[in-house]
Amino acid sequence: MRSARRIDFLAVVVLLYAALCVLPASLWFSPGQVQVGDTILPHPPAIGFSRVIKRPTLMSYQVVIRDIQTGVGVCDPRSNPFTYVPHAKLPAVIDLVWWTGGDTRCWPRTPGVYVMETCWTIVAPLWGLLPKKVVCRESNPFTVFEGAKS
Predict the structure, then answer these.
(1) Parent domain of 109
(2) What are the tens digits of pLDDT across the range 44-98?
(3) In the 8-state DSSP scheme, what is residue 138?
(4) C-beta of residue 121 within 8 angstroms of C-beta of residue 89
(5) What is the pLDDT of residue 11?
(6) CB 60 within 8 A of CB 78
(7) Residue 36 within a domain
(8) Is 14 domain-assigned?
(9) Residue-by-residue DSSP string for 65-134
(10) CATH code of the domain in which 48 resides
């Protein structure tokens, strides 16, 4: 009788944990769509983006930029975890250099059509009791045009 109660209790705990594991990342962080503008070299593309940070959250991000024709990646910057806070403001002007953490080598310098995927990882949801949560957004295709020859 006693072992049956333990098994029932364990089953309830496992079911409760499984239910918590499927909580969406949007409970912590809700990114909007990422819009990357076309550009003419040597200017980095401008980015349009909005987000909602619902509570202080330890997160990291990763950006992958790929050439649409070849599928070859241009750059793959990653951040260390840091705390996103609800009152944080985005800069008035966002470009691809800012988006990739200031890494100037991470924006395409060859004319072509590209797409960018950004993924945010919530490192320790629910005080680390739940597995990491990842939310990704792929940008629209954007074109980098050759600049005027000097």
Answers:
(1) 24-145
(2) 999 999 999 999 999 999 999 999 999 888 888 889 999 999 999 999 999 999 9
(3) E
(4) no
(5) 66
(6) yes
(7) yes
(8) no
(9) EEETTT--EEE--B---EEE-TT----SSEEHHHHTTT-GGGS--SSEEEEEEEEEEESSTTTTTS--EE
(10) 2.60.40.10
